[in-house]
Automatic annotation (TrEMBL), chain A:
The species this protein was found in: Salinadaptatus halalkaliphilus
Gene transcribed to yield this protein: gatC
Keyword Plastid: no
Catalysed reactions, as listed in the record: L-aspartyl-tRNA(Asn) + L-glutamine + ATP + H2O = L-asparaginyl-tRNA(Asn) + L-glutamate + ADP + phosphate + 2 H(+); L-glutamyl-tRNA(Gln) + L-glutamine + ATP + H2O = L-glutaminyl-tRNA(Gln) + L-glutamate + ADP + phosphate + H(+)
GO biological process: glutaminyl-tRNAGln biosynthesis via transamidation; regulation of translational fidelity; translation
Protein name as annotated: Aspartyl/glutamyl-tRNA(Asn/Gln) amidotransferase subunit C
Stated role: Allows the formation of correctly charged Asn-tRNA(Asn) or Gln-tRNA(Gln) through the transamidation of misacylated Asp-tRNA(Asn) or Glu-tRNA(Gln) in organisms which lack either or both of asparaginyl-tRNA or glutaminyl-tRNA synthetases. The reaction takes place in the presence of glutamine and ATP through an activated phospho-Asp-tRNA(Asn) or phospho-Glu-tRNA(Gln).
Protein biosynthesis listed as a keyword: yes
GO-annotated molecular function: asparaginyl-tRNA synthase (glutamine-hydrolyzing) activity; ATP binding; glutaminyl-tRNA synthase (glutamine-hydrolyzing) activity; transferase activity
From TrEMBL, chain C:
InterPro entries per UniProt: Amidase, Amidase_CS, Amidase_dom, AS_sf, GatA
Record protein name field: Glutamyl-tRNA(Gln) amidotransferase subunit A
Source organism of the structure: Salinadaptatus halalkaliphilus
Location of the region described as Disordered in the Swiss-Prot/TrEMBL record: 79-108, 178-209
Matching HAMAP family: GatA
GN (gene name): gatA
Length: 92, 541, 426
């Protein structure tokens, strides 16, 4: 990757992937900051490939029913609910 | 992969070549670029010229999502029991509350290993989970825990019979993942609703995603494969066909001109022909019959377009079962970047040795063959008797005690016939199968006639829930025992002195009257010839 | 001026008797407490009330502890000064006008100010050790997998642990005794391997006996550090030497890449861990105008502060198609290298020592304009998280009247070694 600043388009694309709305001046500010930070991350290129082994494996629980939440508890923090359902925006 | 998702744009290292099949060695991670056909946004017009030169070959691959029959969800201890009440089986984990963590259900892993065994797949030394990141209201964490390039099963196969020929379908991989929740669109269809109601009961249900190679050449092959797959999964006890949403199929279909196939062999399409072909994804199929209809429709639609020189778009289409058509979902075609990375909250699995430790029942096709060999049954009977594992199991208990042919008639023809008529399954007789065996015994030992058994007893058993003995007694169906006949003979003689004296004075015909009386007493089930002789013996004594 | 230590002050009594009866505990506000507001220092969760307790909270209650409140923190754990909190900054009781460190600044300050006997914080890249150093108290970051994270709102889930603050090493160790141990709700926890000491408690290890202790000092972690901090550090080492310990220099070449590797991994994980905040089940809602993409984006725009947005975006970028190998994969390689390096030097030393932070506590407001500068301040702490190892920060003295912390790093599950050595300096 070259020394070019991260473009505002790239920032917008990433913001869309991350579902975070940004104001125009935020886009510009982030673009500048990202360039510095990503530049700094460049040195990772120098790192050799190293193999990793997991410390743990095969952690499982038995197929047995365990305590669940009461519906009111599950719904208690939702801004809007309807008849026991969570209300969500439309998905068109 | 959720039904609303379009698949295939998942490679994070842009693929320059199609990786058709992958070998696994114990140490190298299973590397597979998860595309059959790299994403090609431009449509390709098949010119009329090309078509004239040869036939069009239909090439189909499947992605099948199967809900596994475990008691609890894949990453938490919530029940998977069906319920009409929304958000009843939920907890911090499957709701995606802040701070909750997944813990893997051993039962789901066992089910996966059983499936792997049944399809002869490799289970690698180490397998792990990844996060697939995308946003949707039915996805509590806005990422799905799934398996990416190290799936639990790889390189399996399943043999299917289509119109007499047997074909082997390659199953490239099968992996575990969690189901999202369910959405209800309020105030319109999916495109026009005002808002959505979300129910997380289903969120976290274990799924097995089974991906085939593009080996199918016709919609009927697809149907046969799916029917066989369902049967195998039911035999394994990991799947319930009756359960809503337990089977979801996405199919990919391409029409390829025969002369583009380098090898000239339609079973060996080759990567470049596949890559350049358009492929359509068809979603929202939920049964093997639906798959055949959807793909037959799609195949025809595409062939017609090609033959008229029209463009076939590379796109995703939605199968509308009620209208019998596929509908374009083109508006959903976006480049999807799932940003896969390892799920650090779940340590890897080393379960290759589970394949040896976990046993699976004899599979349907093997059982069919054995039934033919061992019990001397014809193919059709063997097929009926292995239609479900429970039927096959029951048949074998009956055949162990009685003549296999008799058992076959009783189970395949009589029992299944009566059950089907009443829209019942053999599982509805759980706990009562010994009564059916008793019924067969009554017939085998000549205690009642086959006709009575079939027409009266069995039907009453099913409709009135009475035992065979109860019915036989109530209806007086017993083929009467010798003592009873003798008793009736004696009684008839006592009660009809006139007929007796007629007989004694030389009227031989009077005995018929007495036979009639005895027959009446025994409800018509005694043998008239025997009765005649017994009367004479008694009278001459 | 109020110290702004707590976001919520509320008393929750534990059971009557137990090892922590008569002990008051302040709990960082990213640790779930049933029925009590848990905000993570964010507007996104400013009215979120968890319906369940974190495992560590249950264990505290079962040990008889009294919880006195939820403490202020950098938003979602992202920060080194507690200034990114949506609820305002926290004063450093040991250094007025200066930051208390972060992200567990509130917890460290609560202990330093005597508002609680002990406190719980979380440490993803130094978030316990940094505030412990800046506030002049003891803080322990356990070995990854020793303490359950069930109920800890995730930021960097492969890096973080919950750990205790206290004014003495022994008290911190006693708290660790209560919260440590495997949890079947956290698949990454495990039982420490059995060794000669496994039967004794962590509190019992606070003997201060450092006779024969071999200390490795990684030269890279002293480079570029503030002179006053370095002097104070060596004074502390002298103190340990006078009690029978010895030190030698070691080299950890991999730590040069530790900060980048840490941030790439932490930000990548954060971008995924924070994706769940969409307003449907909890948190700031984006309303119902428009479709889910729009409403989610609105909720998150309004609920998250700048630093959180920055890290989510960078993390998304590092994982995205075309960049995954360059950043995320390379960062994992760097991590493996760091682990290897630490394992190597710990074969030649009982513990490693360094200044906890390369600088004394910042002045309030000093660090906020330059995020990259802030990230670099974590240079001494992040390698430990990458290596999954335990570490303790103990007060080492002062420079210009500002607290300086000494960091000791141990081998995996070597908390007792750290507690023994750290208690020599009290």
């Amino acid at each position: 990757m070259s020394d070019d600043a991260v473009s505002p388009e790239e920032v917008r694309h990433v913001a869309e992937l991350a579902r975070v709305d940004l104001a125009d001046d935020e886009v510009d500010q982030f673009a500048r900051q990202f360039a510095d930070i990503l530049d700094y991350f460049e040195t990772l290129d120098e790192v050799p490939e190293v193999d990793r082994e997991a410390d743990l494996a095969n952690v499982m629980r038995p197929d047995e029913v365990r305590d669940t939440l009461e519906r009111e508890e599950a719904l208690q923090n939702a801004t809007k609910t309807e008849d026991g359902y969570f209300k969500g925006p439309n998905v068109s | 992969m959720a039904p609303h998702e379009s698949s295939f744009v998942t490679d994070i290292e842009p693929a320059t070549e199609h990786v058709a099949g992958v070998g696994i060695d114990g140490l190298a991670p299973y590397r597979r670029v998860v595309t059959f056909y790299p994403h090609q946004p431009e449509s390709r017009v098949m010119t009329a010229q090309t078509v004239q030169q040869g036939d069009l070959v239909t090439v189909i691959g499947l992605e099948v999502h199967v809900q596994l029959e475990t008691d609890t969800k894949i990453f938490c201890g919530c029940s998977t029991e069906q319920t009409d009440e929304p958000n009843e089986h939920v907890c911090p984990v499957c709701l995606g509350l802040p701070g909750a963590l997944p813990v893997l259900n051993e039962g789901a892993v066992e089910a996966a290993v059983k499936i792997g065994k049944a399809i002869d797949a490799e289970i690698p030394e180490e397998t792990r989970f990844h996060r697939k990141n995308y946003y949707y209201p039915d996805l509590p964490k806005n990422f799905q825990i799934t398996q990416y390039d190290e799936p639990i099963c790889a390189d399996g196969e399943l043999e299917v019979a289509v119109e007499g020929t047997r074909r082997t379908i390659t199953i490239e991989r099968a992996h575990l993942e969690e189901d999202p929740g369910s959405l209800q669109h309020v105030g319109g269809g999916i495109d026009t609703a005002d808002y959505t109601l979300v129910n997380y009961n289903r969120a976290g249900t274990p799924l097995m995603e089974i991906v085939t190679a593009p080996d199918f050449r016709s919609p009927s092959e697809v149907r046969a494969f799916l029917a066989e797959l369902e049967e195998v999964l039911e035999y394994l006890g990991v799947f319930d066909a009756e359960r809503d949403g337990s089977l979801r199929i996405d199919a990919n279909l391409s029409i390829i001109p025969e002369d583009e196939i380098e090898s000239g062999d339609i079973d060996d399409i080759g990567s470049s022909a596949l890559e350049t072909a358009n492929r359509t994804e068809v979603k929202n199929i939920s049964s093997h019959k639906g798959a055949q209809k959807a793909l037959a429709y799609e195949e025809t639609r595409q062939k017609n377009a090609i033959e008229r020189g029209r463009a076939v778009e590379q796109e995703t289409r939605h199968w509308d079962e009620s209208r019998g058509i596929t509908v374009s979902m083109r508006s959903k075609e976006e480049e999807k970047d799932y940003r896969y990375f390892e799920e650090a909250d779940l340590p890897p699995l080393r379960v290759a040795d589970w394949k040896d430790e976990i046993s699976i029942p004899e599979l349907p096709s093997a059982r069919r063959e054995r039934f033919q060999a061992e019990y001397g049954l014809d193919e059709e009977s063997a097929s009926k008797l292995t239609s479900t594992k429970q039927v096959a199991d029951f048949y074998e208990t009956v055949a162990a005690e009685f003549d296999p042919d008799l058992a076959a008639t009783w189970v395949a023809d009589n029992l299944l016939g009566e059950l089907n008529y009443r829209d019942m399954e053999i599982t509805d007789l759980e706990g009562r199968l010994n009564e059916v065996t008793r019924l067969v015994e009554l017939v085998a030992t000549d205690e009642i006639t086959a006709k009575n058994a079939r027409e009266t007893v069995l039907r009453s058993m099913l409709d009135d829930e009475r035992t065979p003995e109860e019915i036989v007694d109530a209806e007086g169906l017993g083929k009467t025992g010798e003592d009873e006949v003798q008793q009736a003979v004696v009684e008839a003689i006592d009660e009809n002195p006139d007929a007796v004296s007629d007989y004694e004075s030389g009227d031989d015909g009077a005995i018929n009257f007495l036979v009639g009386q005895v027959m009446q007493k025994t409800g018509g089930s005694a043998d008239p010839g025997d009765v005649n002789q017994l009367l004479r013996a008694e009278l001459e004594a | 001026m109020s110290a702004n230590i707590f976001i919520t002050e509320e008393t929750i009594d534990g059971v009557e008797d137990g090892p922590l009866a008569d002990t008051t505990v302040a709990v960082k506000d990213n640790i779930s407490t049933e029925g009590i507001l848990t905000t993570c220092g964010s507007a996104m969760l400013d009215d979120y009330v968890p319906p369940y307790d974190a495992t560590v909270v249950s264990r505290l209650k079962d040990a008889g502890a009294t919880i006195v409140g939820k403490t202020n923190m950098d938003e979602f754990g992202m920060g080194t000064t507690t200034e990114t909190s949506a609820f305002g900054a926290t004063e450093n009781p040991a250094a007025p006008g200066h930051v208390p460190g972060g992200s567990s600044g509130g917890s460290a300050a609560a202990v330093a100010a005597g508002e609680a006997d002990v406190a719980l914080g979380s440490d993803t890249g130094g978030s316990i050790r940094c505030p412990a150093a800046f506030c002049g108290v003891v803080g322990i970051k356990p070995t990854y997998g020793l303490v359950s994270r069930y109920g800890l709102v995730a930021y960097g889930n492969s890096l973080e642990q919950i750990g205790p603050f206290a004014t003495s090493v022994e008290d911190a160790a006693a708290t660790l005794d209560v919260i440590a141990g495997p949890d079947d709700r956290d698949a990454t926890t495990r039982e420490p391997p059995a060794d000669g000491e496994s039967d004794s408690s962590y509190a019992d290890a606070a003997t201060g006996d450092v006779d024969g202790l071999s200390i490795g000092v990684p030269t890279e972690l002293l480079e570029g550090a503030d002179e006053g901090v370095v002097d104070t550090f060596w004074d502390a080492i002298d103190d340990l030497e006078s009690q029978g310990a010895s030190y030698h220099e070691v080299s950890l070449p991999s730590v040069e890449h530790a900060v980048e590797a840490y941030y790439v991994i932490a930000m990548s994980e954060a971008s995924s861990n924070l994706a769940r905040f969409d307003g449907v089940r909890y948190g700031e809602s984006g309303g119902y105008d428009g479709n889910w993409n729009e409403t989610f984006a609105t909720a998150r725009k309004e609920g998250f502060g700048d630093e959180v947005k920055r890290r989510i975006l960078l993390g998304t970028y590092a994982l995205s198609a075309g960049y995954h190998d360059k950043y995320y994969k390379k960062a994992q390689d760097a991590r493996a290298w760091v682990k290897q390096d630490f394992d190597g030097v710990l074969e030649e030393a009982d513990v490693l020592a360094s200044p906890t932070m390369p600088v004394p506590p910042f002045e309030r407001g000093e660090s906020l304009d330059d995020p990259l500068q802030m990230y670099l301040a974590d240079a001494n702490t992040v390698p430990v998280n990458l290596a999954d190892l335990p570490a303790i920060s103990v007060p080492a003295g002062e420079t210009d009247g500002l607290p300086v912390g000494l960091q000791l790093v141990g081998p995996a599950f070597g908390e007792r070694e750290l507690i023994r050595a750290g208690s020599a300096l009290s």
